[in-house]
Design a protein that fits this description.
By secondary structure, this protein is α/β, with parallel strands linked by helices. Helix content is about 50%, strand content about 15%. The protein has a domain of about 130 residues. The chain contains 8 helices and 6 strands; from the N terminus they run E-H-H-H-E-E-E-H-E-E-H-H-H-H. Strand 4, helix 4 and strand 5 form a beta-alpha-beta unit. The longest helix has 18 residues. It starts with a strand and ends with a helix. The N terminus and C terminus are likely disordered.
Length: about 200
């Protein structure tokens, strides 16, 4: 498993970790990884991931699908509370998964669309993280970066609103995904993110 290097040493430098908690986490992680097989369907794999999250980082949070979102992590145990995390999942072999060198793929277009839907349609400004994973690799973005680079881009926001409000020739998601300014912004985002990851 590879988690893009977000300088974990610095994050946890001042945090004391109980040995038994670390051993529990290690065991839960091993069980999760043992269930992941490359040839399994995404729908099958993602529930192993949800179970892993519920047993580790999000014991007191509702985790469920929402609309087309693969997973949404709520602020607390209630499905009615605001979302704090949006997760897009792909199979381990999927060509739709982002890489360190290519953000212009379906997983990123999807998560960007979901971000706009949550941010604009649901007026949710409590989002903390945006995650894309194939269960081996995890791209974890700070929602404030999406806010700065996408939501505050007036042209991109207007394009989403036009698509969302049926002002385009079609409601197909590909029409939104193909918008050229998205691709340009994704290249800028790639440079920005990699600079901040390492």
């Amino acid at each position: 498993m590879k988690i893009n290097e977000i300088k974990l040493k610095e994050i946890f430098r001042n945090r004391k970790i109980n040995i038994s908690d670390l051993e529990d986490f290690s065991n839960i992680l091993k069980i999760f990884l043992s269930k992941i097989e490359r040839n399994q369907r995404e729908e099958h794999l993602k529930y192993f991931f949800r179970d892993f999250l519920k047993k580790t980082f999000y014991r007191n949070n509702a985790i469920n699908t929402k609309g087309n979102f693969d997973f949404a992590i709520h602020k607390d145990e209630s499905d009615k509370s605001k979302l704090e995390v949006i997760i897009e999942t792909k199979t381990p072999e999927s060509k739709e998964m982002i890489t360190e060198n290519n953000f212009s793929v379906k997983s990123m277009y999807q998560i960007l669309l979901y971000f706009f839907q949550e941010r604009i349609n649901n007026k949710n400004n409590d989002l903390k993280n945006i995650v894309i994973t194939n269960f081996y690799e995890y791209f974890i973005f700070d929602a404030s970066d999406f806010e700065k680079l996408f939501y505050e881009n007036k042209d991109l926001k207007k394009e989403f609103e036009n698509w969302n409000n049926d002002k385009k020739t079609s409601k197909k998601t590909n029409l939104f995904y193909e918008y050229q300014k998205i691709k340009k912004n994704l290249q800028n985002f790639l440079k920005y993110s990699l600079r901040n990851f390492y």
